[in-house]
Design a protein that fits this description.
This protein has 98 residues and is α+β, with helices and mostly antiparallel strands. It has one helix and five strands; from the N terminus they run αβββββ. It starts with 10 loop residues before the first helix and ends with a strand. The model has no long low-confidence stretch (mean pLDDT 90).
């Protein structure tokens, strides 16, 4: 009988992902320019393939909670995914919370 191996998370790798996502989101948030919402067009060459919206849901000294959602897609086979992300500024990490 094969014994199942216990899952052991790679904390170093997970931490690197959280930190990398934080850095990317901070750069992306610059387009907000003090506003609570922005939309970004996704293009392939001249063709519009989708629109992504970024909205700040909550903001405090140490955290921001944001909603990232695709609000338009070029193909009917694409759904419009969304996720809520919390940015922890004191730890410089981002976590998907829903």
């Amino acid at each position: 009988m094969d014994k199942k191996r216990k899952y052991v998370p790679d904390l170093i790798s997970l931490g690197a992902h959280y930190e990398g996502n934080y850095r990317r989101l901070v750069l992306l948030c610059r387009i907000l320019d003090g506003q609570n919402r922005a939309e970004i067009e996704l293009n392939v060459g001249e063709r519009l393939v989708g629109i992504v919206a970024i909205r700040v849901l909550e903001s405090s000294k140490y955290t921001d909670t944001m909603l990232l959602e695709q609000i338009s897609a070029a193909g009917k086979w694409l759904n419009n995914p969304s996720m809520t992300v919390r940015l922890y500024h004191d730890a410089s990490v981002a976590e998907v919370i829903s």
